[in-house]
Amino acid sequence: MSEISIHKSGQAVGSYVAKKVSRFEQAEYLAFGAEILLGSILKLSVLFFIAAMMDIVLEVTVLLIVTGLIRTLSGGAHCSAYYRCLVTSVLMLTALGYTIKTIHPIIRLLPISFLIGITALSIYLYWCYAPQAPLNKPFKNRTKELAFRWYTLFTVLALSIISISLGTSSLIAWTMAFALLWQAFTLTPVGHSFIRLWDILLTPKKKGGEAEC
Amino acid sequence: MLKLITKSMFQGLAAVLTVVAMTNIGTTSMFMMYQPEPPKKS
Known about the structure:
The structure holds 2 protein chains of 2 kinds.
Chain A: H1 2-20, H2 27-54, H3 57-74, H4 82-107, H5 112-129, H6 142-166, H7 171-185, H8 189-201
Helix pairs in contact in A: 1-2, 2-4, 3-4, 3-6, 3-7, 4-7, 5-6, 5-7, 6-7
Chain B: H1 2-26
C-alpha cells in the first residue's frame, strides 16, 4: 500500500513537472527522480524523528553518512518494496546507534587493536564481495564494475584510517567502524539472507519468492 | 511576472529531479535498501 503511494506520488509529480516544463518525453525520467526524492525525504524524516526521540541523532547521522556513502559505491542487499526498506533501515540504524551509545563506556576502554580488527574485517569483506549492482540496474560493463570496486575499497580504507586515527575513546570512531562492518555485512550471503528474512517478515501476504533482496 | 517565476521554479524542480535520477542510474544503489525501477530508456 505504502509502496503504491510513494510510487504513484512520484509518477504524479514527475508527470506534472514534465507537463509544466513541456518535456513530455522526460516524464518517466522525472518520475523516477521524484520517487527517489520523495522516498528519501520520508525515510529521513522518520529516521531522524525516531533518532531524536531516542537521543541518538549523532550516532544515526554518522551511521547514515558512512553507510550511505559506501552503499552508493558498493551496493548491497535490497528489500522488495519501499515500506519494507523503510522499516528495515530505520530499525537497523536506530538499533545499531542505540547499541553503540549504550556500550560505548565499555568499548572505549578496549585497546586500539579491536578497532583495527573491525576495520580490517570490513576491508576483507568489501574486498571479497563489493560491488553488487541491483538486479534491475546491472553494471553495463566489466570496466565500470572494476571502477566501483576500487572506489569502494579506496573509500573504505580512507574511512578506516579516519576511524583509527580518532582512537578508541571517540564515539564517532566506533560508530564509523560499526557502520563499515554493517554495510559490509549486507554484501555477504548471510547479510542477504538476513535482509530477505526481514523482507518476508514484513510482507503482509505470503507469496513464494516475492522477496528480491 | 508570476508566470515567469512559476516557470523558473518548475524548470529548477525538473533540473533537481533529473540530477537525482541521473545520479541514481549512474551508481550501484540508493543509499538505503530499496531500488525503484529505473526508466526503460536509461
